[in-house]
Design brief:
Elements (H helix, E strand, L loop, with lengths): L3 H4 L3 H14 L14 H5 L2 H13 L4 H7 L2 H6 L24 H7 L1 H4 L3 H12 L22 H15 L5 H8 L3 H8 L3 H6 L5 H8 L7 H16 L1
Helix pairs in contact: 2-4, 4-7, 9-10, 10-14, 11-14
């Protein structure tokens, strides 16, 4: 096989991968990110270079194989832990236990992955609550730090639960349901109570209304059902 220098003409790429090889072979204990004139643009691709080298050059895996085989043991053996500090926060979750590494594979195969923030949020919710492809997973997981501090995550997960666990025929029925006492039970049963508590919403009805896209919100229904609920409570 040709040497790194022969395979990678770009000096920056060669320096980054040369450092990675030294650590991988045990000749160095820590990575040293090479200094370049255009630091910002170059530093951002360090993690992608390490992961690409490990997955493509060493293991010769395509996208599907990488998704199937990349796990914590692979990360440990390939000494990729330090790469996480070079991955932008919006491209990585912070799951504290039994992390899913699809986000890292997406650095290597971005077109195949199409790993959006919405998909990550739903995947994390399913993983923690043993739903979907994680229904038979024996491991316990925890949410990433600040997961429920993001209103978009609350909206996505509430929408996921409505679509999968709630029967309704119209938007009016949904507004009526979230104005009823059953709404809080639904939120508790599907482990969304922390999301509700950390939201700025005072009622499940308000939480549901604000979880909808602006184009899907019905202000007339919201205020009508809210008023009906208030009058019913006053009786």
């Amino acid at each position: 096989m040709a040497s790194l220098k022969d395979r990678y003409v770009d000096d920056h790429v060669y320096c980054v991968l040369s450092e990675y090889e030294k650590v991988l072979l045990g000749n160095k204990k820590k990575f040293s990110v090479p200094k370049t004139e255009d630091k910002k643009d170059k530093i951002d691709d360090v993690a992608a270079l390490w992961w690409s080298y490990a997955i493509k050059d060493i293991c010769h895996w395509d996208y599907d194989q990488a998704v199937a085989f990349v796990d914590s043991e692979f990360v440990k053996q390939m000494r990729l832990e330090p790469s996480f500090q070079h991955i932008p926060p919006d491209k990585r979750p912070h799951v504290s236990k039994n992390m899913n590494y699809d986000f890292a594979v997406a650095l290597v195969y971005p077109k195949e992955a199409k790993y959006s923030a919405a998909k990550r949020a739903i995947d994390e919710y399913e993983r923690v609550n043993h739903l979907g492809k994680y229904v038979n997973d024996p491991n316990d997981y925890s949410y990433s730090k600040g997961f429920w501090n993001k209103p978009e995550n609350t909206a996505l997960c509430l929408g996921y639960c409505i679509q999968n666990f709630l029967s309704y025929k119209s938007q009016y029925e949904l507004y009526k349901f979230f104005a009823s006492p059953d709404a809080l039970k639904f939120i508790k049963d599907h482990n969304l109570l922390d999301a509700f508590r950390k939201s700025i919403c005072e009622t499940p009805l308000e939480l549901f209304h604000k979880s909808l896209d602006y184009s899907a919100r019905d202000e007339f229904l919201y205020h009508m059902v809210k008023r009906e609920s208030e009058l019913s409570t006053d009786k």
